[in-house]
Amino acid sequence: MISSARRSNYRVTLAVLSVGVASFALVQSLTIPVLPRIQDELGTDPTTVTWVVTAYLVSASIFTPVAGRLGDAIGKERVLVAALAALSVGCVVAALAPNIGVMIAARVVQGVGGGVIPLSFGIIRDEFPEPKIAGAISFTSALLGAGGGLGTVVAGPLVNTFGYAWLFWLPAIVTGVAAVAAWLLVPESPVRTPGRIPLLPTLLFAGWLTALLIGISEGSREGWGSALVVGLVVAAVVVFAGWVVVEQRATVPFIDLRMMRLPAVWTANLVAFLVGVGMYASFAFTPRLLQTDVDVAGYGFGATVTEAGLLMLPASAGTFVMGLVSAQLARIRGAKPVVVIGCVVAAVGLAAIGLVHEQPWQTAVASGLFGLGLGAVFASLASLVVAAVPPEQTGVASGMNANIRTIGGAVGSAVMATIVTGHLGRGGEPHESAYTAGFLFLGAALLVAALVALAIPSMSSRELEDALEAEPEPEHVLAD
């Protein structure tokens, strides 16, 4: 049992966790609008510079559940400090990078910071008073969603005023301070999963995930039928199958697949995947739509990076505001209805961006609508996942949920790129109808997420824990 004295510091703990989560979310999206500037500064080509995003995506996808699993096993506070320190060091290296190779390596190190997401949720569940858990998770989730959108807003002014290196100096300073604060102020959580981290299941997990994400990322550039893409996807499928077999037989699994089969867990993960499809692609392609020169393509506003960011500011504001009130809404109506309604509202916002963009204010309103829906989903979905598993599996479960959302983002961005770049018109710009079709696709993904959310069972955490314990034990014939 955690003493009341330790729990009395939960507000300080929340402040530290909030800084870490917000910093990671900013680093995740800051580089996307200014890739051409990074390309020019480092003297590389358009294909190579995209690895600034791909390397980070792959690294974060791997280390998010790995850090969650490590935190569950050896202590969440110490792994949180390590994740924040890695994010800070990676940002320093990126700010000083003399060439694209060093920049890509730095982005891989930054991806380790993805562990702050599951570790923060786990610490909140372990350390906070019971009545404060849902609100704290909602607030942290709101920061995660709002920070991702805010990165596209501040990137332009930051680069224009201080230079592109400050895309990394600023989060390096903030996360460095957060790492020290976490070390000094965040108490070590007593909830642990006994046993060591299994090497073989972890390596197989990293293998299939890396092959899948690189294959998806390269699909829109190399062609979906290219030997490289097909080979990577086939390799991902084969390694994934091997990983499932090993996990089921391992004495100490990396991911408890019995837990992943629980109705409350797999439905929440599928919702997260579909939300990722819409969210990440919209962050990447809305600025492109806004920056299109109307004199060349016949649509768009010819906005600068800064102007496009300002038009997307309502999305970040809506995400944050709705995240703050979602806990109260969930307390009144239940978390599941909030997720369902949030998905529908976000879908309407995405469809509106694609269908109605003759005036800047129309895009701003649609963006705000999307943000409101996204904030409701982010805040309430995280609470559902945390409540669905035993305390000692909070880290790995929430890590996998965030990871699956990232995979959805990779899929959505690749499909969106294929739709948009497959229909080029005047001046080499995509046809306006291509953007319309793309955003309608993203909206449809959110509508499907709403339908899936209806299937999330309304069960208490005790009922879900009993369901996990009732699952048959796997054959313990393969020790790592």
From TrEMBL:
Write down the InterPro entries for this protein, in alphabetical order: MFS (IPR011701), MFS_dom (IPR020846), MFS_trans_sf (IPR036259)
Name the Gene Ontology molecular function terms of this record: transmembrane transporter activity
Q: Where are the transmembrane segments?
A: 12-36, 48-67, 79-98, 104-124, 136-158, 164-186, 198-217, 223-246, 266-285, 297-325, 337-357, 369-390, 402-422, 434-456
| Key words of the record | Cell membrane, Membrane, Transmembrane, Transmembrane helix, Transport
* Domain of life, per lineage: Bacteria
Query: What are the residue boundaries of the Major facilitator superfamily (MFS) profile domain, all occurrences included?
Result: 13-461
**Topological category with respect to the lipid bilayer:** Multi-pass membrane protein
Q: Where in the cell is it found?
A: Cell membrane
Show the Pfam families listed in the entry: MFS_1
Q: What SUPFAM superfamilies does its record include?
A: MFS general substrate transporter (SSF103473)
> Which PROSITE patterns does the protein's record reference?
MFS
What's the protein here called?
A: MFS transporter
The organism of origin for this protein = Mumia zhuanghuii
